[in-house]
Amino acid sequence: MIGRWAGALDGLGNGILGGSPGGAGTAGAAAGLLGLTVRDLPAVNASLNALAAVLLVVGWVLIRRHRVEAHRAVMLSAVAVSTLFLTSYLVYHAQVGSVAFQGQGPVRTVYFSVLLTHTVLAAALPVLVVLSLWRAFGRHYRRHRAIARWTLPIWLYVSVTGVVVYWMLYRLEL
User: Fold this and answer.
1) Nearest residue to 95 via CA among 49, 162, 41
2) Residue 75 domain-assigned?
3) C-alpha–C-alpha distance, residues 22 and 118, integer Å
4) Calpha distance 127→114 (Å, rounded)
5) CA quadruple 53, 56, 57, 61: dihedral, nearest 10
6) Which of 9, 47, 124, 133 is 20 to 30 Å apart from 19, CA to CA?
7) The domain containing residue 148 runs over which residues?
8) pLDDT per position as a tens digit, 84-124
9) Residue 30 lies in a domain
10) What stretch of H or E contains 37?
């Protein structure tokens, strides 16, 4: 089952990014439909995470100001951006696999502490987001607020730490 998903994601990545089926040489493939290669995806993913974080804060400010329709539009945009992130993340890792952190000493401890909390909370996030959306669309606003009080800070933490993990893994000069 997992192999079937990986094959589908590999094919999706090849179709969007360009490259040959089967993944051979895909990471260095010529620019595809979007003008990106697989090597560009970590930066794209970090940008999508950063954008999601901004949208979440804007959505929170809007609901605090009782601008419900604007809040709804911004939060649905955050869902769309996070969905694009997840798709891009899965395509990247289906084609590249995992990337080892090269740092040693205290920075390694910090990296894995951030990564562990990020990963655990990210695993719970889709359920929380769907439940929040379900309650909002069902007009169960009291119940929506009750779950959104958990969903928002977790989603914000995951989005911000996603950018931190990217920076530490790909940009930190060691």
Assistant:
1) 41
2) yes
3) 31
4) 21
5) 170
6) 47
7) 36-171
8) 999 999 999 999 999 999 999 999 999 999 999 999 999 99
9) no
10) none
